[in-house]
Design a protein that fits this description.
By secondary structure, the chain is α/β, with parallel strands linked by helices. About 50% of the residues lie in helices and about 10% in strands. Strands 1-2-3-4-5-6-7-8 form an 8-stranded parallel β-barrel, surrounded by 6 helices.
């Protein structure tokens, strides 16, 4: 049976697994630690993935803010542990991995450092599908000799269509995209549209790989994937089954099994994937405190078009205001605000902009209080909205000011010299990567530097923790356990076992 499953088709579908980034960002509040990735790295490296998405998105912020981990070190460690597998990241174009547009010098330097650390594939997107916000990042990726994956932020609205997405893909291809990702962050892509969009993309650009990224929120993702494969999709984003479904992605093993014995068979070994899934099933128990309440299928997303992570944020905002009973009102307000702001796809940062403004509209009165991010959006500082902004709403937000029509980053002065001077003035010893972390998240980075300098653990301890965890969970990967481990680790390993088996393991706060 295993041999049949693992036999590759004549035109195999490739799999990217998002377990190390998007899956735990969607399900576990981006809390997965590097030490919990390393024990299974050898099997992941042998699994035959096209790539592993393991960085970008919210991980860099979260690692410094909550985990006390250096995000750049994660790239190096995982690349060393999985040298035969492409390391992939999600980059928000001119937003990099933050929540605003950064100057071009930040974008270029970030790409250089990420490529040097070990990132092989850059999936780069813009929340508004404004091609101007991708030019600098795509140029930098090409200059560093890495894989450019241009991305369509998929959504449904009166101003979006198959034709508009194909036209956008034309621009991505002209810029040098080697693959094009259809990024369906809310699970809105139905099977019919998946077939039509992929077919149109393959017809227009047969030389460019089409990469599918769908969340399972609506329950349609697996069906949409199969229709996309029929139309010629080349790569599917999946999540190992123990970290799949809900607001995460379709399960890897299911897609591998469904495609077996067809000419699109993946060639992946289900027995090996079973081991990976079992490992993360055990690991997930350590993170139950951060489990999302949105773990099942929610067809309401087809009505509200609100991604699961955004629902969690809205719920938290209302709870803080003692107004959780008004959640239904906010859910109804979000589509209205989105329409008034020109139908932006709801993905970072536009999901936060629309969601927060909708919440304020419900609690304070419509546009009685306007966030600075909403004002910046209406002024064109995030890019060109997909559709026209309602004139009355524009006036409520920015008065008589006129939105800019130029590329937003053209008005930004270089940022790195100023950030370097700030760190020098503080007397902080910093690396090139530290400077970049500070440029992206100044306050978070300074707090992280302070904690890191006080609490940095010896490398021998980190290695022993990973080995002890592997032993505790019964991982039978001797190469992964011993590669690069020091000879004298008994004391640390014993301490790690005590920590990992103590009663407080279920309530860890990283």
């Amino acid at each position: 049976m295993t041999k049949t499953i693992s036999s590759s088709g004549r035109n195999p579908v490739h799999i990217t697994d998002v377990m190390l980034r998007d899956a735990h960002q969607s399900l576990l509040a981006t809390r997965l630690r590097t030490m919990h990735m390393l024990p299974i790295a050898d099997k992941l490296n042998r699994a035959g993935y096209w790539s592993l998405e393991m960085w970008g998105g919210a991980t860099i912020d979260s690692m410094m803010r909550f985990l006390n981990e250096d995000p750049w070190e994660r790239v190096r460690v995982l690349k060393a542990a999985m040298p035969d597998t492409r390391m992939q990241m999600l980059m928000r174009g001119q937003n990099v991995v933050g929540y605003r547009n950064y100057a071009d010098d930040v974008v270029r330097e970030f790409v250089r450092l990420a490529a040097r650390a070990g990132i092989d594939v850059f999936r780069v997107f813009d929340a508004l599908n404004d091609i101007r916000n991708l030019q600098t990042s795509i140029d930098a990726i090409k200059q560093n000799g890495k894989w450019v994956e241009g991305t369509i932020s998929y959504t449904k609205s009166p101003v979006h269509s198959i034709e508009s997405f194909v036209k956008y893909a034309d621009e991505l291809a002209k810029m040098g995209a080697q693959s094009i990702c259809i990024k369906d962050m809310a699970g809105l892509l139905d099977p019919k549209d998946a077939y039509e969009l992929v077919g149109a993309l393959k017809q227009a650009h047969p030389e460019v790989l089409v990469h599918m990224h769908c969340h399972y929120t609506s329950g349609m993702a697996s069906m949409s994937y199969l229709k996309a494969v029929e139309a010629g999709a080349d790569i599917l984003d999946c999540a190992i089954s123990s970290l799949s479904m809900g607001t995460s992605g379709p399960p890897t093993e299911t897609m591998v099994a469904v495609l077996a014995e067809t000419d699109r068979a993946t060639g992946m070994d289900l027995e090996l994937l079973k081991d990976v899934s079992e490992y993360f099933r055990n690991i997930r128990r350590l993170y139950h405190a951060w489990e999302s309440v949105f773990t099942g299928v929610d067809p309401d997303v087809l009505v509200w078009q609100i991604p699961g992570g955004m629902i969690s944020n809205l719920s938290a905002q209302l709870q803080q205001q003692g107004a959780l009973d008004r959640m239904d009102e906010v859910m109804g307000e979000v589509p209205q605000v989105r329409a008034e702001l020109g139908y932006p796809p709801l993905v970072t940062p536009t999901s936060q902009i629309v969601g927060t403004q909708a919440t304020l509209n419900v609690l304070m009165g419509r546009y009685k209080m306007v966030t600075k991010e909403t004002k910046a959006y209406v002024l064109g500082q995030y890019g060109k909205p997909p559709g026209p902004i309602d004139p009355e709403v524009q006036k409520l937000c920015i008065g008589e000011e006129m939105p800019i029509t130029s590329r937003p980053a053209d008005s930004l002065e270089p940022e790195l010299p100023k950030r370097r001077a700030e760190l020098d003035a503080l007397g902080i010893n910093y690396s090139e990567e530290d400077l970049m972390s500070y440029a992206l998240f100044p306050q978070v980075a300074l707090e992280f530097f302070s904690r890191r300098d006080r609490t940095e653990r010896p490398k021998e301890e980190i290695a022993a923790l990973a080995a002890a965890l592997a032993d505790l969970l019964g991982v039978q990967d001797e190469a992964a356990q011993t590669r690069g481990m020091p000879d004298r680790r008994g004391t640390w390993a014993a301490a790690a076992r005590r920590e990992l088996t103590s009663d407080r393991v279920s309530t860890w706060r990283y």
